[in-house]
Amino acid sequence: MVSHVSLLVVIISVKNNQSCLTGVAKYKIAEGLTQSIKFKYFFPTDYPSQTFATGDIVYILGKYIVENSEPCFTVAYSSIVDSGNPNWEFDMSDVPVTIPYCTYFVTVNHAPKNVGELIHFGVETVQYNPVTGNSEVKMDITVIYPHQSVRFKYLGSNIKLRSNYFVSGLLRFSKSGKIMIEATDIDYLKTSTIGISASKRLTQQRRMHLDRPMTKKIITPPLKFIRVKKNNLITKIFMRSIMKRLWI
Question: Which CATH architecture has domain 4-188?
Fold first, then answer.
């Protein structure tokens, strides 16, 4: 599963190719802190395309992938909020904070640990990155959530190694560049035991039926000879008086 997020970014550099725009943008993650991303915007064929310029403030919606600690964004929809100020690159004080909210289908590769008031566990997901064209991009992510959170009380000790989950939350980067998700939802699939239980019950019922002592006799009716006159010939017809077995 690929995460699609929306961001408010400032265009830092842009290159116009024949079929798409490529470049670098920044979004504000906190006061005085920004995050750079590479972006790629394929021109639509069913409606007029937009072109960005350096300094434009653009609302973008699309696919968010991190490859080698570098965020990449494939723009599916865009809307220019403000344009004509190339100095936005150096002054983002008026740009609001936006944090990617992501959902990924992940596999647990590190068991949960208590770290202060938080629980950490490691997961991985493999994605395709249209910006760089690389397939099987592995993203190692650290998922965190409050230890005392009532919302995650149901998890308990259910998080197991190599189990698969849908993890949703705010995506951030640590000082060392590691990907972290402040989880808001952690959903997992339980293995259904209904079919197994039903199969066991059916097997037991069949076994009980086979083990039950037989109290009925099977009688095969005797064979009879019947003489029939036809064309002045007597033909013996060999037949059963009853063609099926009777239970009595």
Answer: Beta Barrel (2.40)
